[in-house]
Amino acid sequence: MSWSERQRAMLREMGIPAFWPVPPSAPAEDVPMVAAAVADVAPIAPAPAPTPTPTPPLARPARPEVKPPVSIAAAATAGIQAILRERPEGIDQMDWPTLRQAVSGCTACGLCESRKQTVFGVGHQHASVMIIGEAPDEQEDSQGEPFVGRAGQLLDRMLSPIGLTRADADANSQVFIANVLKCRPPGDRNPLPAEVAQCEPYLMRQIALVKPRIIIAMGRFAAQSLLKTSEPIGRLRGRLHDLQGTPVIVTYHPAYLLRNPVDKGLVWDDLCRVREQLNQPT
Ligand code: URA
Q1: Cα–Cα distance for residue pair 184/189, rounded to 1 Å
Q2: Are 267 and 252 in contact (CB under 8 A)?
Q3: pLDDT tens digits, residue range 182-214?
Q4: Exposure of 29 in the CB half-sphere (CA atoms within 13 A)
Q5: Which residue has a Cα nearest atom 3 of ligand 1?
C-alpha cells in the first residue's frame, strides 16, 4: 500500500506507528516510534478535513480487547450485584434540560451511591457525529465530562484528521460525546448488564435528540450494548451497522489503543469510513 504525503501527515497526527512502507526519502521524524506514539497525546494543530480514498477491506483480524479492571465474571464472583430502583417516567419525551436534570438526579442503580457526579455528555446538540463510549472513569467522575483523561486526549487526536472536534464548532464539525453509563462504576469495573439497562433510556433519548448522521461506538462494551450483540469487536468493525435508522461504526476504544498502539491503523480505517459516510449527500 502506498500513502500520499497528505495521508502520512494525517497518520502522524494520530500517532500511528510506521508499520506501513515509508518512502526512503521521508525524514526520520516521519517514522514515529510506537513508544512516542503512546506517550505523545499533547494537543496538535488542527488539520484540514481530508477526503479519504475508499478504505480497503480489513487486512487482518483484530485482537480481542481486554479491559484490565474487574470483568463482569469477576464482578459476579465477587458478589457485585446491581442495586436497582425506579427510573424517572417519560424519558423518551424529555427535552435537553429535563433530560440533563433527570440524569443528574438519577438513583436508578447503585452507581449513584459511589459517583461524585453524573457525566451527561458534551457537544453539539445536533452533531452529525455522535461518539459513544463506555462509562466515566475517575477523571470523568471528578470533572463531569466524558473522555477527559489520556484516552480522551487520544480521541481528540483521532478526530482531528477527519475534520471533527469536541471544541465549539458547527454541527458538521463538533461531535457529541456520551457514554453508555452516566455514572462511574466503582474501581472502573465493567458495567453490569442491569446498570446498562437502567441507563439505556437516557442514551437513547440523547441519540433521538441529537439525530446524528452517524454514531461511532468506541470499544467492545459500547458496541455490544448499542447493537445488542455479543459478537467480538473484531467482527463488528469494518462495516456499517444500523441503530433504529442511524448508521453505526464500531471501532476500538482509545484506552485500548493506548495499550495496543499497533491497532491505530485499524481505527484509521474506521474513521475513514465515517468520513466517507459524512461525505455522502444527505
Ligand atoms: N472515559 C469516558 O468518558 N468514557 C470511556 O469509555 C472511557 C473513559
Answers
A1: 9
A2: yes
A3: 999 999 999 999 999 999 999 999 999 999 999
A4: 2
A5: 146
Q: Which residues of the chain have pLDDT under 70?
A: 1-81
Closest ligand 1 atom to 145 CA: 3
Q: What is the DSSP letter of 65?
A: P
- Its pTM stands at 0.77
Q: Is 217 helix (H, G, I), strand (E, B) or coil?
A: strand
Q: Structural domains in the chain?
A: 89-279 (3.40.470.10)
Sign of CA dihedral 37, 41, 42, 48: positive
Q: Which residues are near ligand 1 (CB < 6 Å)?
A: 133-137, 140, 146-147, 151, 179, 255
Choose one of 118, 179, 182, 251 to mutate for the ligand 1 pocket test, by most ligand atoms within 8 angstroms of C-beta.
179
User: How far is ligand 1, taken at its centre, from the CA of residue 179, in Å?
Assistant: 7
CA of 2 to the centre of ligand 1 (A): 34
Count the neighbouring beta carbons within 10 Å of the beta carbon of residue 115. 18
